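Exercise 3.2. Students should predict the tertiary structure of the chain below and write it as structure tokens, then compare their answer with the key that follows.

Predict this chain's 3D structure.
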Amino acid sequence: MRKRVPLLIVLTLLIVIAGLIIFNFDRLRGAVNKSTGDTDLEQLFDISITREATDDMDNVELGDAIYFTEKGRLYAYSLDNQPLWDIKMSDQVVLQYQAGRLMVAEEAVGNIYILNSAGELQASLLGLGELDTIELVETGQVVAVVRQSKEIRIFDENLIQQAVMEVPEGIILNFHVNHEYNRLTTLILQDSEGELRTSVVLYNLKGEALQVISRPDIAINAYSYRDEILVVVPSGVIVYKEMLTRPVASIPMNNIKSTYLSGTTIFLETGSLDATEGQGELAINAYSMSDRDIEFHNKLAVKYDKIVTQDDQILLLTKNNLEIQTTSGGQVLTKTYPVPIRKATILADGRIVLVFSDRISLNQLKH
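Answer key:
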């Protein structure tokens, strides 16, 4: 005679199995949380996109709206997920937003368009030639590095050329515009008799070279603040005054690996995960250009690929992982997603936008 399994045991097993299925589905579609306290990152909505694994995501921009290209069109969605407008546009573009203006640049041919928030064309410039890099700055000006001529060109908000900067022989690593003092600082990698070194060249926005700082080491970045030039090298931040050849200040730090500028604060990744290397602990530091001082120092558990900041919030991204910190309280939340995070930003209202290869996701911290 076959024994009957009690109904209570059957129901219990079904509940356990259902719970496991739901848990694993959540892991596959969503993310695994680890937070301090009751903080969570709540997903508000997704916008579907299609991107290749190698796409650099320059064709997704987050500002007063969400801008992205998809299948030959440029779309704008509001921050509450309402479609605003769309126009025909190549997918191979760089999108940048500043103060109500959206720059659309086709770097391969040097075509530049300026749109307003309604998607209306305000200015255009065609056939500039292949561009190494291009940036829409806070003043509405556009700064472009032309590949063939190795020139830096500055255009006003109507894309009328204002200045051409002839750069010394070498590779332009990056540039920084100081619109308060009408200065542009560029960092150049040069080969000096078989040895690599870097030079920092300071220009005014008329295109005139004002100062050259040659260094025997490989600088990581250079910035201009007021009448100062800040050169970031692996061993610290070196401060120069305009027209003075010797540094006026030096802030020593342990093994600087990367920098990120937000306002007047330079975020610096320093140290190493391996304490035996003698480079200090791996950490994120905030250096205040106005105070010439370190504002905070937060220890890191892993090396991050990208840092995003807004006010006192810091996003640290590495592959599938997101860590949220504050400048005052350290770690707030860590989250692991099933696919890599390709891009992220913090909106002015504190909401967080994450970009994956298949979707743009708007989220908010829930306490």
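Discussion points: The two ends are 58 Å apart (CA to CA). The helical segments are 7-29.
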